[in-house]
Amino acid sequence: MQMGYDGCYSVPSNFSENIHYYYQFLYLFPATCLNYRILWTIWVSHRQFYSTQSFYNLYSIDCLASILAMSFEILFTRLFLYFPQFCGVLSGIVGNSPIFMRIYYCSISYFKAIKPVVHIFVAINRMSCVMFPVTYSQNWSNKMCIMVFIIFAAPFLVIWNTLISRNYLGYLNGGFVITYEREVKWASLSLMQFTLVILTVLITMITTFITFHKLRNMKKRIKASERSLCIAAGLISMLFLFEAVTESLFAFFKDAPWLIDIMVYIMWSTWDFLIVGSPLVLLFVSSQFRYHVLGMKIGRTQRVSSIQNPPPSHHTSHHHLTVSRNQDKLAQSKRPFYYWFRGISNFEILIFQIFFKIRRRDFLNPKRLDELFRKIRISIEF
Protein backbone atom coordinates (compact mmCIF):
# COMPACT_ATOMS: atom_id res chain seq x y z
CA MET A 1 0.00 0.00 0.00
CA GLN A 2 1.12 3.51 -0.81
CA MET A 3 0.18 6.90 0.53
CA GLY A 4 1.30 10.19 -0.92
CA TYR A 5 0.36 13.81 -1.32
CA ASP A 6 1.39 14.52 -4.92
CA GLY A 7 -1.64 13.21 -6.79
CA CYS A 8 -3.59 10.13 -7.83
CA TYR A 9 -1.74 7.00 -8.92
CA SER A 10 -2.91 3.83 -10.61
CA VAL A 11 -3.63 0.50 -8.92
CA PRO A 12 -3.52 -3.00 -10.44
CA SER A 13 -7.32 -3.38 -10.47
CA ASN A 14 -9.97 -0.71 -10.07
CA PHE A 15 -12.68 -3.31 -9.48
CA SER A 16 -10.83 -4.77 -6.49
CA GLU A 17 -11.10 -1.34 -4.86
CA ASN A 18 -14.70 -0.80 -6.00
CA ILE A 19 -15.76 -4.02 -4.31
CA HIS A 20 -14.84 -2.50 -0.93
CA TYR A 21 -17.43 0.21 -1.51
CA TYR A 22 -20.11 -2.24 -2.63
CA TYR A 23 -19.93 -4.57 0.35
CA GLN A 24 -19.71 -1.67 2.82
CA PHE A 25 -22.74 -0.10 1.18
CA LEU A 26 -24.63 -3.37 1.79
CA TYR A 27 -24.52 -2.82 5.56
CA LEU A 28 -24.22 0.97 5.81
CA PHE A 29 -27.38 1.73 3.85
CA PRO A 30 -29.65 -0.71 5.78
CA ALA A 31 -28.15 0.61 9.03
CA THR A 32 -29.00 4.15 7.93
CA CYS A 33 -32.57 3.07 7.20
CA LEU A 34 -32.82 1.32 10.57
CA ASN A 35 -31.61 4.40 12.45
CA TYR A 36 -34.06 6.50 10.46
CA ARG A 37 -36.86 4.08 11.38
CA ILE A 38 -35.95 4.35 15.09
CA LEU A 39 -35.88 8.15 14.82
CA TRP A 40 -39.27 8.10 13.06
CA THR A 41 -40.69 5.91 15.84
CA ILE A 42 -39.44 8.14 18.67
CA TRP A 43 -40.17 11.51 17.07
CA VAL A 44 -43.27 10.85 14.95
CA SER A 45 -45.23 7.59 15.05
CA HIS A 46 -45.01 7.04 18.84
CA ARG A 47 -44.09 10.56 19.85
CA GLN A 48 -46.58 10.76 22.73
CA PHE A 49 -45.31 7.50 24.19
CA TYR A 50 -41.57 8.28 24.01
CA SER A 51 -41.47 12.06 24.35
CA THR A 52 -41.68 11.85 28.15
CA GLN A 53 -38.94 9.20 28.44
CA SER A 54 -35.52 10.76 28.82
CA PHE A 55 -33.65 7.61 27.75
CA TYR A 56 -35.18 7.68 24.27
CA ASN A 57 -34.82 11.43 23.95
CA LEU A 58 -31.09 10.95 24.48
CA TYR A 59 -30.86 7.94 22.21
CA SER A 60 -32.63 9.77 19.39
CA ILE A 61 -29.69 12.21 19.29
CA ASP A 62 -27.38 9.24 18.79
CA CYS A 63 -29.58 8.01 15.93
CA LEU A 64 -29.53 11.42 14.27
CA ALA A 65 -25.73 11.57 14.49
CA SER A 66 -25.48 8.04 13.06
CA ILE A 67 -27.74 8.89 10.12
CA LEU A 68 -25.72 11.98 9.22
CA ALA A 69 -22.37 10.20 9.73
CA MET A 70 -23.32 7.21 7.56
CA SER A 71 -24.72 9.50 4.87
CA PHE A 72 -21.38 11.33 4.73
CA GLU A 73 -19.53 8.00 4.61
CA ILE A 74 -21.64 6.64 1.73
CA LEU A 75 -21.76 9.82 -0.33
CA PHE A 76 -18.24 11.14 0.19
CA THR A 77 -15.66 9.23 2.27
CA ARG A 78 -15.98 5.75 0.76
CA LEU A 79 -16.69 7.14 -2.71
CA PHE A 80 -13.47 9.17 -2.71
CA LEU A 81 -11.38 6.25 -1.46
CA TYR A 82 -12.68 3.22 -3.35
CA PHE A 83 -13.15 4.53 -6.91
CA PRO A 84 -9.65 5.09 -8.36
CA GLN A 85 -11.10 5.62 -11.84
CA PHE A 86 -12.69 8.88 -10.62
CA CYS A 87 -9.79 10.01 -8.45
CA GLY A 88 -8.44 12.59 -10.91
CA VAL A 89 -11.79 14.31 -11.49
CA LEU A 90 -13.05 14.18 -7.91
CA SER A 91 -9.75 15.20 -6.31
CA GLY A 92 -9.54 18.17 -8.66
CA ILE A 93 -13.02 19.33 -7.65
CA VAL A 94 -12.59 18.70 -3.93
CA GLY A 95 -9.03 20.05 -3.77
CA ASN A 96 -10.21 23.36 -5.20
CA SER A 97 -13.07 23.63 -2.69
CA PRO A 98 -11.49 24.51 0.68
CA ILE A 99 -14.89 25.39 2.16
CA PHE A 100 -16.25 21.94 1.32
CA MET A 101 -13.17 20.24 2.80
CA ARG A 102 -13.49 22.28 5.99
CA ILE A 103 -17.23 21.54 6.39
CA TYR A 104 -16.78 17.86 5.54
CA TYR A 105 -13.84 17.19 7.87
CA CYS A 106 -15.26 19.14 10.79
CA SER A 107 -18.65 17.43 10.38
CA ILE A 108 -17.17 13.92 10.33
CA SER A 109 -15.04 14.74 13.38
CA TYR A 110 -18.09 16.19 15.16
CA PHE A 111 -20.20 13.07 14.52
CA LYS A 112 -17.44 10.86 15.94
CA ALA A 113 -17.19 13.06 19.04
CA ILE A 114 -20.89 13.43 19.81
CA LYS A 115 -21.66 9.70 20.02
CA PRO A 116 -19.42 9.05 23.07
CA VAL A 117 -20.89 12.13 24.77
CA VAL A 118 -24.43 10.82 24.22
CA HIS A 119 -23.45 7.41 25.55
CA ILE A 120 -22.08 8.98 28.75
CA PHE A 121 -25.45 10.61 29.42
CA VAL A 122 -27.29 7.39 28.54
CA ALA A 123 -25.18 5.42 31.04
CA ILE A 124 -25.78 8.01 33.78
CA ASN A 125 -29.47 7.95 32.89
CA ARG A 126 -29.70 4.19 33.55
CA MET A 127 -27.82 4.51 36.83
CA SER A 128 -30.01 7.33 38.13
CA CYS A 129 -33.09 5.33 37.14
CA VAL A 130 -32.35 2.65 39.75
CA MET A 131 -30.73 4.94 42.33
CA PHE A 132 -33.54 7.52 42.42
CA PRO A 133 -36.64 5.71 41.10
CA VAL A 134 -39.09 8.18 42.63
CA THR A 135 -37.61 11.48 41.44
CA TYR A 136 -35.73 10.14 38.38
CA SER A 137 -38.28 11.00 35.71
CA GLN A 138 -39.03 14.50 36.95
CA ASN A 139 -35.38 15.42 37.46
CA TRP A 140 -34.36 14.38 33.96
CA SER A 141 -37.38 16.05 32.35
CA ASN A 142 -36.64 19.35 34.09
CA LYS A 143 -32.97 19.33 33.05
CA MET A 144 -33.28 17.78 29.60
CA CYS A 145 -32.78 21.08 27.73
CA ILE A 146 -29.52 21.73 29.62
CA MET A 147 -28.28 18.20 28.93
CA VAL A 148 -29.09 18.43 25.23
CA PHE A 149 -27.16 21.71 25.05
CA ILE A 150 -24.15 20.08 26.74
CA ILE A 151 -24.32 17.10 24.36
CA PHE A 152 -24.24 19.34 21.29
CA ALA A 153 -21.63 21.74 22.69
CA ALA A 154 -19.17 19.26 24.25
CA PRO A 155 -17.79 17.86 20.94
CA PHE A 156 -16.34 21.27 20.11
CA LEU A 157 -13.87 20.74 22.97
CA VAL A 158 -12.53 17.83 20.93
CA ILE A 159 -12.63 19.20 17.38
CA TRP A 160 -11.75 22.86 18.00
CA ASN A 161 -8.33 22.51 16.37
CA THR A 162 -9.87 21.17 13.14
CA LEU A 163 -11.98 24.33 12.89
CA ILE A 164 -8.89 26.51 12.55
CA SER A 165 -6.56 24.12 10.70
CA ARG A 166 -5.89 23.81 6.98
CA ASN A 167 -7.28 20.81 5.09
CA TYR A 168 -5.57 18.98 2.25
CA LEU A 169 -5.83 15.73 0.29
CA GLY A 170 -3.93 12.54 1.03
CA TYR A 171 -3.79 9.91 -1.73
CA LEU A 172 -4.20 6.34 -0.59
CA ASN A 173 -4.29 3.16 -2.67
CA GLY A 174 -5.61 4.82 -5.82
CA GLY A 175 -8.16 7.03 -4.05
CA PHE A 176 -7.90 9.97 -1.70
CA VAL A 177 -8.95 11.11 1.75
CA ILE A 178 -9.37 14.54 3.30
CA THR A 179 -7.12 15.23 6.26
CA TYR A 180 -5.76 18.29 8.07
CA GLU A 181 -2.54 19.99 9.16
CA ARG A 182 -2.69 20.88 12.84
CA GLU A 183 -2.63 24.61 13.53
CA VAL A 184 -1.92 23.88 17.19
CA LYS A 185 0.67 21.11 17.09
CA TRP A 186 -0.06 19.51 20.48
CA ALA A 187 -3.84 19.32 19.93
CA SER A 188 -4.05 16.00 18.07
CA LEU A 189 -7.60 15.05 17.06
CA SER A 190 -6.85 11.33 17.42
CA LEU A 191 -5.46 11.85 20.93
CA MET A 192 -8.50 13.87 21.99
CA GLN A 193 -10.92 11.34 20.53
CA PHE A 194 -9.01 8.55 22.23
CA THR A 195 -9.26 10.39 25.57
CA LEU A 196 -12.99 10.94 25.10
CA VAL A 197 -13.68 7.31 24.20
CA ILE A 198 -11.62 6.00 27.15
CA LEU A 199 -13.52 8.38 29.45
CA THR A 200 -16.79 7.04 28.01
CA VAL A 201 -15.79 3.43 28.64
CA LEU A 202 -14.71 4.16 32.23
CA ILE A 203 -17.89 6.06 33.08
CA THR A 204 -20.02 3.33 31.52
CA MET A 205 -18.25 0.59 33.46
CA ILE A 206 -18.67 2.45 36.77
CA THR A 207 -22.33 3.33 36.21
CA THR A 208 -23.15 -0.20 35.02
CA PHE A 209 -21.53 -1.71 38.13
CA ILE A 210 -23.54 0.62 40.37
CA THR A 211 -26.71 -0.18 38.46
CA PHE A 212 -26.22 -3.94 38.86
CA HIS A 213 -25.48 -3.46 42.55
CA LYS A 214 -28.70 -1.50 43.09
CA LEU A 215 -30.74 -3.97 41.06
CA ARG A 216 -30.24 -6.66 43.69
CA ASN A 217 -32.62 -4.85 46.03
CA MET A 218 -35.31 -4.19 43.44
CA LYS A 219 -38.40 -6.14 42.47
CA LYS A 220 -37.94 -9.04 40.10
CA ARG A 221 -39.92 -7.58 37.19
CA ILE A 222 -38.01 -4.29 37.39
CA LYS A 223 -34.70 -6.11 37.79
CA ALA A 224 -35.23 -8.13 34.58
CA SER A 225 -35.95 -5.08 32.40
CA GLU A 226 -33.10 -3.00 33.82
CA ARG A 227 -30.66 -5.91 33.45
CA SER A 228 -31.40 -6.00 29.72
CA LEU A 229 -30.52 -2.35 29.31
CA CYS A 230 -27.36 -2.82 31.37
CA ILE A 231 -26.32 -5.64 29.07
CA ALA A 232 -27.00 -3.38 26.10
CA ALA A 233 -24.91 -0.60 27.65
CA GLY A 234 -22.10 -3.07 28.28
CA LEU A 235 -22.11 -4.33 24.70
CA ILE A 236 -22.09 -0.80 23.33
CA SER A 237 -19.20 -0.01 25.67
CA MET A 238 -17.25 -2.88 24.12
CA LEU A 239 -17.80 -1.27 20.72
CA PHE A 240 -16.43 1.98 22.10
CA LEU A 241 -13.47 0.07 23.48
CA PHE A 242 -12.63 -1.22 19.99
CA GLU A 243 -12.90 2.34 18.72
CA ALA A 244 -10.50 3.44 21.48
CA VAL A 245 -7.93 0.89 20.32
CA THR A 246 -8.09 2.26 16.77
CA GLU A 247 -7.84 5.86 17.94
CA SER A 248 -4.81 4.97 20.09
CA LEU A 249 -2.99 3.65 17.02
CA PHE A 250 -3.45 6.94 15.18
CA ALA A 251 -2.71 8.97 18.31
CA PHE A 252 0.57 7.27 19.27
CA PHE A 253 1.80 5.55 16.08
CA LYS A 254 0.66 7.92 13.35
CA ASP A 255 4.06 8.06 11.62
CA ALA A 256 4.86 4.35 11.93
CA PRO A 257 5.39 2.67 8.51
CA TRP A 258 3.47 -0.47 9.52
CA LEU A 259 0.36 1.59 10.29
CA ILE A 260 0.07 2.59 6.63
CA ASP A 261 -0.13 -1.07 5.65
CA ILE A 262 -3.19 -1.77 7.82
CA MET A 263 -4.80 1.67 7.68
CA VAL A 264 -7.33 0.76 4.98
CA TYR A 265 -8.54 -2.19 7.08
CA ILE A 266 -8.87 -0.50 10.48
CA MET A 267 -9.64 3.08 9.49
CA TRP A 268 -13.41 2.57 9.48
CA SER A 269 -13.96 -1.01 10.69
CA THR A 270 -14.46 -0.18 14.36
CA TRP A 271 -16.40 2.98 13.48
CA ASP A 272 -18.74 0.89 11.32
CA PHE A 273 -19.20 -1.67 14.10
CA LEU A 274 -20.16 1.13 16.46
CA ILE A 275 -22.74 2.91 14.33
CA VAL A 276 -24.24 -0.31 12.93
CA GLY A 277 -24.18 -2.35 16.14
CA SER A 278 -25.60 0.22 18.56
CA PRO A 279 -29.24 0.23 17.28
CA LEU A 280 -29.22 -3.56 16.82
CA VAL A 281 -28.27 -4.07 20.47
CA LEU A 282 -31.17 -1.94 21.69
CA LEU A 283 -33.66 -3.65 19.38
CA PHE A 284 -32.65 -7.14 20.48
CA VAL A 285 -32.84 -6.43 24.22
CA SER A 286 -36.22 -4.65 24.15
CA SER A 287 -39.26 -6.50 22.80
CA GLN A 288 -41.54 -3.52 23.23
CA PHE A 289 -39.26 -1.13 21.39
CA ARG A 290 -38.67 -3.71 18.66
CA TYR A 291 -42.42 -4.04 18.20
CA HIS A 292 -42.84 -0.28 17.88
CA VAL A 293 -39.96 0.06 15.41
CA LEU A 294 -40.39 -3.07 13.28
CA GLY A 295 -44.03 -3.91 13.94
CA MET A 296 -43.35 -7.47 15.13
CA LYS A 297 -43.39 -9.43 18.35
CA ILE A 298 -40.78 -12.08 19.12
CA GLY A 299 -41.34 -13.81 22.43
CA ARG A 300 -42.87 -12.03 25.38
CA THR A 301 -43.29 -8.29 25.15
CA GLN A 302 -41.25 -6.72 27.90
CA ARG A 303 -41.07 -3.11 28.86
CA VAL A 304 -37.73 -1.40 28.45
CA SER A 305 -37.91 -0.07 31.97
CA SER A 306 -40.66 -0.73 34.47
CA ILE A 307 -39.52 2.29 36.43
CA GLN A 308 -39.50 4.56 33.45
CA ASN A 309 -42.77 3.48 31.87
CA PRO A 310 -45.94 4.41 33.77
CA PRO A 311 -48.44 1.68 34.70
CA PRO A 312 -51.42 1.06 32.40
CA SER A 313 -53.97 3.83 32.61
CA HIS A 314 -56.72 5.43 30.63
CA HIS A 315 -54.16 7.55 28.81
CA THR A 316 -51.87 4.66 27.84
CA SER A 317 -54.78 2.42 26.84
CA HIS A 318 -55.76 4.95 24.21
CA HIS A 319 -52.16 5.51 23.06
CA HIS A 320 -52.42 3.63 19.77
CA LEU A 321 -55.79 5.26 18.99
CA THR A 322 -54.27 8.71 19.54
CA VAL A 323 -51.28 7.91 17.34
CA SER A 324 -53.60 6.63 14.61
CA ARG A 325 -55.64 9.84 14.71
CA ASN A 326 -52.48 11.94 14.50
CA GLN A 327 -51.31 9.96 11.47
CA ASP A 328 -54.73 10.41 9.82
CA LYS A 329 -54.47 14.16 10.32
CA LEU A 330 -51.05 14.17 8.70
CA ALA A 331 -52.35 12.09 5.82
CA GLN A 332 -55.28 14.41 5.26
CA SER A 333 -52.94 17.39 5.10
CA LYS A 334 -51.26 15.68 2.09
CA ARG A 335 -47.77 16.77 3.01
CA PRO A 336 -45.33 15.27 0.49
CA PHE A 337 -42.61 14.50 3.01
CA TYR A 338 -45.05 12.48 5.13
CA TYR A 339 -45.91 10.13 2.26
CA TRP A 340 -42.24 9.75 1.31
CA PHE A 341 -41.16 8.89 4.86
CA ARG A 342 -44.15 6.63 5.44
CA GLY A 343 -43.51 4.70 2.23
CA ILE A 344 -39.89 4.05 3.13
CA SER A 345 -40.91 2.99 6.63
CA ASN A 346 -43.38 0.40 5.34
CA PHE A 347 -40.76 -1.02 2.99
CA GLU A 348 -38.19 -1.27 5.80
CA ILE A 349 -40.66 -3.11 8.06
CA LEU A 350 -41.27 -5.70 5.33
CA ILE A 351 -37.54 -6.31 4.93
CA PHE A 352 -37.03 -6.91 8.65
CA GLN A 353 -40.16 -9.07 8.87
CA ILE A 354 -38.85 -11.31 6.11
CA PHE A 355 -35.50 -11.58 7.92
CA PHE A 356 -37.08 -12.59 11.24
CA LYS A 357 -39.52 -15.03 9.59
CA ILE A 358 -36.61 -16.82 7.96
CA ARG A 359 -34.82 -16.80 11.30
CA ARG A 360 -37.86 -18.40 12.98
CA ARG A 361 -38.16 -20.98 10.14
CA ASP A 362 -41.82 -20.24 9.46
CA PHE A 363 -41.22 -18.34 6.22
CA LEU A 364 -42.49 -21.25 4.06
CA ASN A 365 -45.74 -21.56 6.01
CA PRO A 366 -48.58 -20.93 3.47
CA LYS A 367 -50.50 -18.71 5.87
CA ARG A 368 -47.39 -16.65 6.57
CA LEU A 369 -46.69 -16.31 2.87
CA ASP A 370 -50.25 -15.13 2.18
CA GLU A 371 -49.99 -12.58 4.95
CA LEU A 372 -46.60 -11.36 3.70
CA PHE A 373 -47.77 -11.00 0.07
CA ARG A 374 -50.82 -9.10 1.27
CA LYS A 375 -48.59 -6.64 3.13
CA ILE A 376 -46.33 -6.24 0.09
CA ARG A 377 -49.37 -5.53 -2.08
CA ILE A 378 -50.69 -2.95 0.38
CA SER A 379 -47.25 -1.32 0.61
CA ILE A 380 -46.98 -1.03 -3.17
CA GLU A 381 -50.49 0.35 -3.48
CA PHE A 382 -49.72 2.90 -0.77
Strand proportion, as a percent range, falls in under 5%
CATH architecture name of the largest domain: Up-down Bundle
Radius of gyration from the CA trace? 23 Å
Question: CATH H-level name of the largest domain... which superfamily?
Answer: Rhodopsin 7-helix transmembrane proteins
Instruction: Write down the CATH topology of the largest domain.
Output: Rhopdopsin 7-helix transmembrane proteins
Counted beta strands = 3
Oligomeric state as shown: single chain
Range of helix content: over 70%
**What order do the helices and strands follow?**
EHHHHHHHHEEHHHHHHHHH
> Which structural class should the secondary elements be placed in?
mainly alpha
Which sequence of strands runs across the widest sheet?
1-2-3
Number of helices: 17
What does this structure look like?
- This protein is mainly alpha-helical.
- The protein folds into 2 domains: 3-294, Rhodopsin 7-helix transmembrane proteins (Rhopdopsin 7-helix transmembrane proteins); 334-381.
- The chain has helices at 14-45, 47-50, 54-82, 87-95, 98-131, 136-142, 144-153, 156-164, 189-215, 220-252, 257-266, 269-285, 287-294, 314-317, 319-333, 336-359, 366-381; strands at residues 3-4, 166-172, 175-181.
- It is globular and about 65 Å long.
- Mean pLDDT is 76; it is low at 299-324 and 326-345.
